[in-house]
Amino acid sequence: MAYKIAVIPGDGIGKEITDSAVEVLKVADKKFGLGLEFVYHDAGGTAYDKFGTPLPQETIDACKAADGVLFGAVGGDKWDKVEPAKRPEKAILGLRKELGLYANLRPVKVADALIEYSPLKPELVRGADLVIVRELIGGIYFGEKCESEQHNGAERAWDLENYSVPEVERIAKLAFETAKLRRGKVTSVDKSNVLATSRLWRRTVTEVAKAYPEVECNNLYVDNCAMQIAVKPTQFDVIVTGNLFGDILSDEAAVVGGSIGMLPSASIGECTSLYEPIHGSAPDIAGQGIANPIGTILSAAMLLRYSLHEEKAADAIEAAVDTALAEGYRTPDLWKEGFTKVNTSEITKIISERV
Ligand code: NAI
Ligand code: MG
To answer: Which residues bind substrate (predicted)?
Structure first.
């Protein structure tokens, strides 16, 4: 039986980094006899240029038919003037909706070899290992909105936040299941001192928690959580939160990890899940062959783990990344005096050899 992986390089450095991850996957495939098959499709500005839409139907169909989706990044100044509905970034929102990608998992683990890249003091970040579970297809990003209207003689705009109990239950269950496989702690983040949606959120998470007596559950207001991530990131195991708060907190947590090029993510769907690095298309370095592919390589490892249940192959890739870093290999975004500077294809080869 073969696993079908839909690869969507997208724009900017998307092609370089997905090429790199596929190269590593092919080595793991050979070593572990996985039977991987890759199909390539367009999305983002690249798709807009070819087909007049950032998310062609055939891309959607291919993703739905795949066992997992490996996504590079989309976007770039080139498409800044395109009408809002056809901007490259619409491809991501569209895929979230089409695939029902209801949760975004962002692990932040600070590798010992990279501790000095964190803006926090080493003694604060050493041992930090958390996952942010962000609700991805509800809340204010998907609520009703008004771009402009007259109200009491002034122009105003508004966005509506709403969450239903089933939406919160689904994401809460995923968070508790994730915590069960980790250190058994869930922190639910909301703003229930002010927002009605947050009060329903907290009430629902508390209810779901009852089915997981082995998992410790606590609540934090989002503003306090933002502080706590910077003050003591090691206190967290799994953080679960809504779409807007999760967007912001996951970027904050990412910076604790040191380099934006290093971090993977998984967007969990009802059937197919999608894996992508957390960074964007980095137009400033696109085409130079110097992008750090590690976030995408680790995303590919998450695909093996969560969608294909090929744990050993996933472990091998993650260990290979750690080894390459411990041996002192660095792409330019991480390079400092005393380390070996390598480009995208060199680091890919080094990681592949260690798999
Ligand atoms: P970005 O993440 O693309 O770049 C921010 C900075 O980090 C740049 O200096 C870039 O060179 C550097 N960087 C990012 N990834 C890197 C890597 N793998 N290796 C080395 N350096 C790396 O964010 P920015 O500049 O805000 O956005 C650029 C475009 O990407 C925009 O069009 C934006 O909308 C889009 N974007 C797409 C996302 C996606 O496809 N999921 C996510 C975030 C942004
Ligand atoms: Mg963000």
So the answer is: 96, 106, 134, 223
The SS3 of residue 38 is strand
Residue 296 CA: nearest ligand 1 atom is: 18
Q: Which of 96, 10, 18 is nearest to 268 (CA)?
A: 96
229-265 residue pLDDT tens: 999 999 999 999 999 999 999 989 988 887 789 999 9
* Nearest by Cα to 217 from 170, 172, 165: 172
The secondary element (H helix, E strand) that includes residue 322 is helix 311-326
Contacts of 236 (CB under 8 A, 6+ apart): 128, 130, 185, 187, 228, 229
Shortest-distance ligand to the CA of residue 260: 1
pLDDT tens sequence across 66-75: 999 999 999 9
Residue 112 has pLDDT above 90, yes or no: no
The predicted pLDDT at position 1 comes to 67
Domain definitions of the chain by residue range: 1-110+257-355
Nearest residue (by CA) to ligand 1, atom 27, is 280
At position 109, the amino acid (one-letter code) is K
Query: Looking at 85-89, 110-114, 154-158, which range is the least confident one?
Result: 110-114
State the closest ligand 1 atom to the C-alpha of 291, by its place in the atom list counted from 1: 19
pLDDT in tens, 171-185: 999 999 999 989 999
Distance CA 107, CA 257 (A): 10
Torsion of CA 197, 199, 201, 207, to 10 degrees: -150
Total residues found in the chain within this entry: 355
Amino acid at 337: E
Q: Is the CB of 87 under 6 A from ligand 1?
A: no
Q: Whose CA is nearest to atom 43 of ligand 1?
A: 280
Side-chain-side CA neighbours of residue 141 (13 Å): 19
pTM metric for this prediction: 0.90
Contact between 300 and 70 under an 8 Å Cβ cutoff? The reply is yes
